[in-house]
Design brief:
- By secondary structure, this protein is an alpha+beta fold.
- 33% of the residues lie in helices and 27% in strands.
- It binds adenosine-5'-triphosphate (ATP).
- The site of adenosine-5'-triphosphate (ATP) has 15 residues, from strand 10, strand 13, strand 16 and helix 11.
Length: 453
């Protein structure tokens, strides 16, 4: 596995991820996705939507607002409870997550410790990792939601927040979906969208940023079926991670102990990935019980209940939530699948992306510029064949061009040569095996779909 620095450098060089606002000297922990990174990210999101929503009979899409009425965040518990313990070094002015400092030094779980107890532990035996001083503030709560405001509304309403999770947009639309689509429990609502958190210590490339995208699915079930659904989703998640190309040896399931559960959760299993910097959470599966719908029922003008017509019974469904971050999945995929491989003439960088998530499905390469026009005609023809994005690569030696496609994950390289003019055939090279075959131009699409993995 490459280290984080090598990954960042590769992703920048190939047009996947750039550091944010770089022409103005940058902005800490801000990253922009370049053309190839955008394609990869979109493909991860599309795979998720296909797997978790479109291939299921009872899951619906949603696209709710980023800015919601602030009462939503009061009801959800975010305004009162969504904060991190923070401590500052008075000598060098660096800010740290208190729980991380304690966990790293003492290898204990600090979730059950009060802020006073955390302060005592840090003051007693922990030095600033940055300047080595022992000159700390007290541990304080640091609000994780980004505040914003709306100038035209009255004072009460002007405190608005950027959503820290997409889930609440689903809960507040529960009645809308039930009433307009006649949704019957069990059913689910999934959505993909940006979330924002004012993280105390962002870092590790795109692992922890202040702005990221979530893939969230809220599955509504009767209480008696909640555990069964939880188990089913555990298995679905394992299958999905396999589709993305992540192997089980780099994955770990962590059952969160009772004392560390989030305020809304009755039970959570986190999936962790072995990143170059160590293990880190990529997703969580939680049994949220009736927490959210009950609170919105209490605090809003609507009862968020389900009416079971068959049994003439009203109840609050339980919620099984799958929540993943697109950027963390992308980082895990690159960590696992971008490899340096020995070849007969040295080594090559190859990005072994599954066909479905690779930015380009194939590349067309004219052997020399003399046959660029004919190769371009083939390229244009293939673009209309519904294979997916295809690129055109000219100039430089064919070997170098193959290597370039390997490094961005393109599975098939189609070389158009002088014989192609006469025999209407091309040479097609497979990224992983580097094997080449001569095939008919007419059969390219079929060949690709038969050989894609
Ligand atoms: P962590 O403990 O790492 O802060 P979390 O438990 O707060 O994560 P959740 O609230 O469960 O995270 O969010 C669901 C998913 O959203 C996470 O598993 C992760 O993939 C993603 N995510 C959360 N915070 C961030 C962030 N700051 N940057 C990138 N992705 C994030």
């Amino acid at each position: 596995m490459k280290n984080t620095k090598e990954i960042i450098s590769h992703l920048k060089d190939k047009g996947f991820v750039y550091s944010g606002s770089s022409i103005y000297g940058g902005l800490a922990n801000s990253w922009d996705f370049g053309p190839l990174g955008t394609m990869l990210k979109n493909n991860i999101k599309d795979s998720w939507k296909t797997f978790f929503i479109d291939q299921e009979e009872n899951i619906y899409h949603l696209d709710s607002s980023i800015i919601l009425n602030s009462k939503v965040w009061k009801s959800s518990g975010h305004i009162d409870k969504f904060n991190d313990p923070m401590i500052d070094c008075k000598s060098c002015k660096e800010r740290f997550r208190a729980d991380h400092l304690i966990e790293e030094e003492n290898n204990i779980n600090v979730d059950s410790l009060s802020f006073e107890e955390q302060t005592k532990m840090i003051h007693k035996n922990i030095k600033c990792p940055n300047c080595k001083a022992s000159n700390w503030t007290n541990v304080r709560a640091f609000e994780l939601m980004f505040k914003t405001s709306s100038s035209k509304t009255n004072e009460d309403e002007s405190n608005l927040y950027l959503r820290p999770e997409t889930a609440q947009g689903v809960f507040i639309n529960f009645n809308n979906v039930v009433n307009t689509l006649n949704a019957k429990v069990p059913f689910g609502i999934g959505q993909v969208g940006k979330a924002f958190r004012n993280e105390v210590t962002p870092g590790n490339f795109i692992f922890r940023t202040k702005e990221f995208e979530q893939l969230e699915l809220e599955f509504f079930v009767e209480e008696k079926d909640a555990n069964k659904s939880f188990e089913e989703y555990l298995q679905k998640i394992r299958n999905f991670l396999e589709i993305l190309g992540l192997s089980s040896k780099n994955l770990k399931e962590y059952k969160v102990p009772k004392e560390s559960l989030a305020h809304y959760s009755l039970g959570t299993t986190d999936f962790e990935y072995k990143f170059p910097f160590g293990w880190g959470e990529i997703l969580g599966l939680a049994n949220r019980g009736g927490f959210d719908l009950e609170n919105h029922s209490k605090n809003s003008n609507e009862k968020m209940e389900y009416f079971d017509q068959a049994n003439n019974r009203r109840y609050t469904p339980f919620v099984i939530e799958t929540s993943m971050g697109v950027e963390r999945l992308l980082f895990a995929i690159v960590s696992e699948l971008l490899i340096t491989e020995k070849t007969s003439d040295g080594e090559r960088e190859v990005f072994k992306l599954p066909f479905n998530i690779a930015p380009y499905k194939a590349s067309v390469l004219p052997l020399t510029n003399k046959i660029e026009k004919e190769a371009k005609d083939l390229f244009k023809l293939l673009l209309k064949e519904n294979i997916g994005p295809i690129n055109f690569s000219k100039g430089g030696s064919i070997g170098k061009r193959y290597r370039k496609q390997d490094a961005i994950g393109t599975m098939f390289a189609i070389t158009y040569d002088f014989d192609s003019l006469k025999d209407k055939m091309v040479t097609i090279r497979h990224r992983d095996t580097m094997k080449q075959e001569r095939i008919k131009i007419k059969g390219i699409k079929e060949y690709i779909f038969n050989n894609a993995r």
